[in-house]
Amino acid sequence: MLYVLNLRLRPEKSTHLTFFSGLLVLKLFLRTLSEVRPELARELHESKSLKPYTCAPLWTRRGEFILDTGVLRPEYWYYTRIVFVRRDLLDYFLQGLEELGYRIQLSEDLTFYLYPTHLRVLEYSDLEEEPTEYFTLEFRTPTRFAVRRSRELRRPKFRLFPLPEHVAHSLVHHWNRYAPPDLRISEVELLTWVRDYVYEVSYRIRKLSVKLTRGRIAVGFVGFCRYRVEDVTSPQAHTFFQLLRYGELVNVGNSKSMGLGLVKLQ
Questions:
Q1: Strand, helix or coil for residue 257
Q2: Radius of gyration over alpha carbons of the chain, in Å?
Q3: Which residues sit opposite 111 in a β-bridge?
Q4: 136 CB contacts (<8 Å, ≥6 apart)?
C-alpha cells in the first residue's frame, strides 16, 4: 500500500526561506515523528538506505513550486505532500501532529502550523498504466542520478541527464525495497529490456541547483525528456510504465526523500 498525504502549512511569522523547501518539509516530518518515536526518527535521519517516504517541496495556491528563495508569509497557506510506503510511519506522523497541536517548532525563529488536508490510499495495482510508443517525463524539481564507481570514493558521482536506464534503475531499486515479495521485479531483466527498447528522442533540460543546509548545494537538472518505446507489447513495457507511475509518487534519482527528482509522466 502507498499513502499519499497532502498537507497545508503556514509560518507563525514571516520567514526567509534559506534552503530547499523540500528539505524544510523533511525537517518538519522528522521533527513531528520524533515527538512520538524519537529513536525511529533518528534512525531514519541517519540511515543511508532508501527511505520509506518521500517529501515534496512547497507550492503555492496557484501550483507554483517554491524552491529555496523567497519569503513565506503567515497570511498565506502553502502546500506540500508526503508519500509513505509504510503505514506505521503515517500513523506515527499523524499522532505526532496531534500531540504537537499542529504547531511544529524547528528552531527559536522557525515555527510552522501544519495540517493534513487529504489522504489517498493506493494499491500497487492502482499504478498500472497502458504502455505507449512515446512518453514524456517532466522533471519538476532538480534531478540527479548517482552513478556507481568501480571503487568507493568519498565524493559521489552524479549523472545530470535522464537516460532511461538510470530512471528505471532508480525506480525498480526503490520498488523492490518496499513492495511485497510477490510483486518484486527482476532488475536485470527490466534494465536489459530498457537498454534495448527505450531511448530518448528529444529533450529540453537545464542545470538547476538548490541550496541545502551547512553551505551545501544540490546540483541537478529540470525540464523534460521525450522517449520512444519500440516494444510496447512486452510484459516488461507494462512493468516499466507501472514504475513510471510509481515514480510520480516517490520521485526519481538521488535524494528522493527530500523532494529532489519530482516527475510527471505525460
A1: helix
A2: 19
A3: 105
A4: 224, 225, 226, 227, 265, 266
Please, where are the H alpha helices in 15-160? 21-34, 38-46, 87-99
Do residues 164 and 190 touch, judged by C-beta distance below 8 A? Answer: no
Beta-strand ranges (E) seen in the chain are 2-11, 15-16, 53-55, 58-59, 65-66, 71-72, 78-84, 103-107, 110-122, 134-143, 145-147, 157-159, 198-211, 217-229, 263-265
Are the beta carbons of 142 and 253 closer than 8 angstroms?
no
Q: What is the pLDDT of residue 154?
A: 67
Average confidence (pLDDT) over 22-50: 95
Q: What is the pTM of this model?
A: 0.94
SS3 content of the chain, % helix, strand, coil (to 5): 35, 35, 30
pLDDT tens per residue across span 112-153: 999 999 999 999 999 999 999 999 999 999 999 988 766 676
Q: Per-residue pLDDT tens for 90-110? A: 999 999 999 999 999 998 889
72-89 as b/e: b if 16+ CB within 10 A = beeeeebbbbbbbbeeeb
Q: Hey, what domains does the chain have and what are their CATH numbers?
A: 2-122 (3.30.70.1890), 126-265 (3.30.70.1900)
Q: Which of 205, 213, 208 is nearest to 142 (CA)?
A: 208
The amino acid that residue 58 corresponds to is L
Directed axis angle between helix 21-34 and helix 87-99, to 10°?
A: 80
